[in-house]
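ok, trying the design again with the full structure, not the truncated one.
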């Protein structure tokens, strides 16, 4: 099998409402670039990456000379051809490699007529459990719906998601408002969810002292883990006295950092992201290291449509030591670009696709519709807040959003 063509198409898929985070917001839509890798025996493998829009398309297109004629089975060769660690100092291609690795695994699976999870050692579970992922949100500017700003709105949304999808672990994406206000919200979330486990993730925005103070104030709650409360392995290490399990998707995202964390422990739970780590296979390898050193593991979400979700499901299916529920932004999406529409949650879990390869197929009509929507609405900056023009955060942050401020009226950049 040889690669004969690659294509990249950027789509924008609407969210229920704009999602706020410590660095800015997802402005009411996800912008994702869909990658198609075609082979000489007529298969099309699918990949996905986020954020860049047209520049991501150009970056994928620039790999054409590297990929044409390459055998998709030769995945380790691909790693060194695209992302040799020395060359990566000059051209950071980890996320591009991830999208191409997804497509190659999809091609191998289609060719051998097995699913990606069967290729990667075989499923130890057929469904992957998810936590609810709760964000502070602006109202959708058109409908006026979806705002989450107050503790009561947060609690209502958590109850709604629990009822709709069966979640029993709830994660609050924080780092938006001042820590005392978010503490009030987190405690209200605990009251609203009947003793379910909770996660708090302010994306490293608190100082060590703020993180210690916040951590002490939640010790009486059922905390699943405390995710990236402060920045850096050395910052996180200073929180170990709290006795709360510490998790990261920020400061252990490669094997060097994982080794450092094993030699001088800072975090307890490694959140494996199929994009940040450069593919599904590096995540499986990292999970093996975590198994050896008895570190916890979960599947991280960096924002996904169905193709990327499939990579997360296959990863979750093959890791025996997946001892925490996965995260997904997926339930915030209004639609998807795969045949059959959005995958569904049942009792907080999603079934691992069983078809050949990744087990998902592009819905060409949906893809065309959302490619058009992207051309209408364009990119948005992940690191800007539509409600605070010109704002950007510091680390540790001190420029918190004001929970009494007005809603932005536009979501265009
Ligand atoms: Mg996180």
């Amino acid at each position: 099998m040889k690669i004969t063509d690659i294509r990249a198409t950027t789509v924008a898929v609407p969210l229920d409402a704009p999602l706020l985070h410590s660095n800015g917001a997802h402005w009411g839509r996800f912008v994702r670039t869909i990658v198609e890798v075609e082979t000489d025996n007529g298969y099309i493998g699918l990949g996905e990456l986020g954020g860049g829009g047209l520049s991501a398309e150009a970056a994928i297109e620039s790999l054409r000379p590297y990929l044409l004629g390459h055998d998709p089975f030769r995945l380790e060769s691909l790693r060194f051809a695209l992302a040799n660690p020395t060359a990566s100092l000059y051209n950071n291609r980890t996320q591009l490699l991830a999208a191409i690795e997804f497509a190659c695994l999809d091609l191998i699976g289609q060719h051998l007529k097995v699913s990606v999870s069967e290729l990667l050692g075989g499923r130890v579970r057929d469904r992957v459990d998810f936590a609810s992922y709760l964000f502070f949100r602006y109202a959708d500017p058109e409908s006026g719906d979806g705002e989450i700003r107050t503790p009561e709105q947060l609690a209502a949304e958590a109850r709604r998601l629990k009822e709709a999808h069966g979640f029993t672990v709830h994660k609050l994406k924080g780092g938006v408002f001042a820590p005392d206000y978010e503490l009030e919200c987190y405690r209200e979330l605990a009251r609203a969810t009947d003793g379910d486990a909770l996660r708090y993730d302010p994306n490293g925005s608190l100082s060590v002292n703020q993180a210690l103070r916040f951590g002490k104030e939640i010790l009486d709650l059922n905390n699943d883990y405390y995710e990236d409360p402060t920045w850096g392995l050395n910052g996180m290490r200073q929180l170990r006295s709290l006795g709360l399990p510490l998790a990261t998707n920020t400061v252990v995202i490669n094997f060097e950092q994982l080794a450092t964390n094993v030699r001088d422990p800072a975090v307890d739970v490694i959140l494996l992201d199929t994009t940040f780590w450069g593919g599904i296979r590096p995540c499986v390898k990292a999970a093996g290291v975590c198994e050896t050193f008895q570190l916890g593991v979960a599947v991280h979400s960096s924002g996904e449509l169905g193709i990327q979700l499939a990579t997360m499901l296959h990863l979750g299916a093959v890791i025996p030591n997946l001892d925490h529920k996965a995260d997904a932004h997926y339930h915030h999406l209004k639609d998807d670009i795969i045949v059959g529409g959005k995958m569904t949650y049942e009792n907080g879990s999603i079934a691992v696709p069983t078809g050949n390869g990744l087990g998902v197929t592009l819905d060409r009509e949906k893809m065309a519709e959302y490619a058009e929507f992207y051309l209408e609405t364009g990119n948005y900056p992940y690191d800007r807040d539509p409600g605070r023009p010109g704002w950007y955060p510091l680390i540790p942050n001190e420029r918190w959003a004001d929970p009494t401020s007005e809603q932005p009226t536009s979501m265009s950049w």
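Keeping the full-length input from now on. Residues 3-113+364-377 form a domain with the Enolase-like; domain 1 fold (CATH 3.30.390.10).
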